Amino acid sequence: MSLKDEQRAHVLKALHADLRYDGRKKESFRKVIVEYDISKSAEGSARVKIGDTEVLAGVKVAIETPYPDTPEQGSLMVNAELLPLSSARFEPGPPSTEAVELARVVDRGIRESAAIDTKKLCIAKGEKVWMVMIDICTINDAGNLIDASSLASLAALKQARFPEYDGKKIDFMTKTKNPIPLLKEPIAITVFKIEDQLFVDPLRDEEDVMDARLTVTTTADGKICALQKGGNGILTIEDIDAMTQLAMEKSEELREKLE
């Protein structure tokens, strides 16, 4: 039996007993901490810690020309950087597949929920709009980067304020009291599966031996706005129903951490 097979057997045995390596239940999160305004150079920033997992998110804005098909709407861009300091698995260089997926999952949750009122980002129709850019940086990967990154991004958006703009030049050193126009607060919860066991907020050892995962992003009114499946395992309709229900229940816990 390989080392990974042994690890999987131990994880599965513990899950069958509703016990995790750190003593939690299958449906329990580690301690979640949200800190705001950690960067003075960003328009908005936040640090999220879920257990030993730590992620930073910063919001910057810029004035751009709108896309031709949406002349009255601003835009959103999300970038994720998996820093080598956060895990031996990550290497410097171009974005990895994992980094691209992380950014896209966060982006899709915000975009598909219509969380930002993009029409209020318009300065001059067809000429100038605000672009909102979110940068995600991993500080320590101890599992569940997707949920931590999504929460950090939303927290940074909630805290962000536009810089002073006189119609010609942006003064990034002077923040106004004008917030990013947020209409909704999408929360992402990723549910993991090993054989017949479902659980949330994995440690890295648990995440490494998963069969599949499903990230479910929901708004406060319970609407599902994005789904992302990961892993090579198969999910049945029954699996998806159960994972979606569990994600919706746990989303309220993370939502409370934003207050």
Please specify the SSE layout and strand pairing:
Elements: H1 3-16, E1 32-36, E2 44-50, E3 53-64, E4 75-81, H2 97-112, E5 122-124, E6 128-140, H3 145-159, E7 161-165, E8 170-179, E9 187-194, E10 197-200, H4 204-207, E11 212-218, E12 224-230, H5 237-257
Parallel strand pairs: 4-6
Antiparallel strand pairs: 1-2, 2-3, 3-6, 5-6, 7-8, 9-10, 9-11, 11-12
Report the sheet-strand fraction. 25-35%
* N- to C-terminal distance: 47 Å
Written as H for each helix and E for each strand, in order along the chain, the element string is HEEEEHEEHEEEEHEEH
> Got a strand count?
12
CATH topology grouping: Ribosomal Protein S5, domain 2
Give the assembly state of these chains.
single chain
Radius of gyration: 19 Å
- Assign the CATH architecture: 2-Layer Sandwich
The CATH H-level homologous superfamily = GHMP Kinase, N-terminal domain
Poorly predicted regions: none
Q: Tell me about the biggest sheet? A: 6 strands, mixed
Tell me the number of helical segments per DSSP (H or I, 4 or more residues long): 5
The domain count comes to 1
Q: Output the CATH class name.
A: Alpha Beta
Please estimate the helix content: 25-40%
